[in-house]
């Protein structure tokens, strides 16, 4: 079965004065339809940045430096703004609250305040 989501060699860095600091380093996993995946790790280990990267909502100075995010067969990192907006609108979201992006849910449903702001801003 084709996975609902495949994160492949995802690397997200923060461009800081001292150089590019990796926050997510070469991460690969898959989620099948109906499956739930929990990300567990100590504070600062990259759980939130992983979730934000999947939704393409990492803000500068953060950026996705490598990898692929294949959702329903399409690489989200290659989508233009219009197509990505459709994904934000109804396909992928995270639950707001203290656990924020940790509750990232890859399913039909609402979308987040961050996504909404970004959708309106129309930036990449
Ligand atoms: N806005 C930011 N600026 C610089 N570095 C950041 C920023 N946000 C996160 N990071 C870096 O990314 C790492 C992972 O953060 P995060 O994904 O929030 O961790 P977790 O959710 O697992 O507690 C942090 O240790 C930090 O080094
Ligand atoms: Mg976190």
Question: Can you tell me about this structure?
Answer:
The C terminus is likely disordered. The chain is built from 3 helices and 4 strands, in the order ββαββαα. The protein is α+β, with helices and mostly antiparallel strands and 124 residues long. Adenosine-5'-diphosphate binds next to β2 and α1.
Entry summary:
This protein has 124 residues and is of the alpha+beta class. It is built from three helices and four strands, in the order E-E-H-E-E-H-H. A hairpin with a 2-residue loop joins strand 1 and strand 2.
CATH topology: Rossmann fold
What share of residues is helical? 10-25%
| Tally of domains | 1
Give the averaged pLDDT, no decimals.
82
List the strand order in the largest sheet: 2-1-3-4
Report the biggest beta sheet as strand number plus sense, adding barrel if it closes: 4 strands, antiparallel
**Secondary structural class:** alpha+beta
- Low-confidence sequence ranges: 100-105, 107-112, 119-124
Overall geometry comes to globular
Order of helices and strands: EEHEEHH
Straight-line N-to-C gap: 31 Å
Q: Beta-sheet strand percentage?
A: 25-35%
Number of strands: 4
Main features:
124 residues; alpha+beta; Rossmann fold; 4-stranded antiparallel beta sheet; 3 helices; globular; disordered C terminus; binds adenosine-5'-diphosphate; binds magnesium ion
């Amino acid at each position: 079965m084709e996975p609902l989501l495949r994160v492949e060699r995802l690397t997200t860095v923060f461009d800081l004065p001292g150089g590019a600091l990796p926050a997510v380093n070469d991460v690969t996993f898959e989620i099948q339809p109906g499956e739930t995946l929990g990300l567990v790790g100590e504070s600062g280990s990259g759980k939130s940045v992983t979730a934000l990267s999947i939704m393409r909502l990492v803000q500068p100075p953060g950026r996705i430096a490598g990898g692929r995010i294949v959702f329903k067969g399409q690489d989200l990192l290659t989508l233009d703004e219009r197509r990505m907006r459709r994904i934000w609108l109804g396909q992928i979201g995270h639950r707001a609250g203290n656990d924020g992006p940790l509750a990232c849910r890859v399913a039909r449903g609402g979308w987040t305040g961050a996504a909404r702001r970004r959708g309106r801003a129309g930036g990449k």
